[in-house]
Structure formats: structure tokens, C-alpha cells
Write a structure and sequence with these properties.
This protein has 79 residues and is mostly helical. The protein has one domain. Helix content is 62%, strand content 0%. The longest helix is centred in the middle third of the chain and has 19 residues. The radius of gyration is 20 Å and the shape is elongated. The termini are far apart.
Length: 79
């Protein structure tokens, strides 16, 4: 799994940019990982959704259950 991440990092960031300093390269890597790879890349463990989309789908599901008069198991919700 780490090999896949590093291959993507190399192809999508390192080969497309030149950095003037180590600090600039570190910031580029940090931005790529935290700004794109972690939140937006699709993951097999999340049903091939990105973490952002997975989180949204779970929130939508929760909101639907919260407003539904029955629990997910079909039993009436006590008010």
C-alpha cells in the first residue's frame, strides 16, 4: 500500500514540479498528502469512496435515520 502512495506521489507531484528548497518540497508533499491524497483519493476499505464522500454518505444516512420515525431495524422510534 505504501508503494502505491509513493508511486502516486512521485508521478503526480515530484515529476511535475521542481522545488527550489527542501522546505518548499516538504510543503509540496504535505499539501499533496493532506490536501488531496488523504481526503479525496478513493479507498477500497470505504467501498471505493474518498474519505470525504464516505463521510458525507454516512452523515446523510445518519440524518435520514434521525428524521425517520422508525429505526433502521424497523422498530418504531420512541419520542
Amino acid at each position: 500500500m505504501a508503494e502505491s502512495c509513493f508511486a502516486s506521489l512521485e508521478a503526480e507531484l515530484i515529476e511535475r514540479n521542481s522545488f527550489e528548497s527542501k522546505a518548499q518540497a516538504r510543503m509540496g508533499v504535505f499539501t499533496w498528502i493532506e490536501g488531496w491524497y488523504n481526503p479525496r483519493r478513493r479507498h477500497s476499505g470505504l467501498g471505493y469512496l474518498s474519505p470525504l464522500n464516505f463521510e458525507r454518505s454516512q452523515q446523510n444516512r445518519f440524518n435520514a435515520l434521525e428524521h425517520d420515525p422508525q429505526h433502521a431495524d424497523g422498530t418504531p422510534q420512541m419520542v
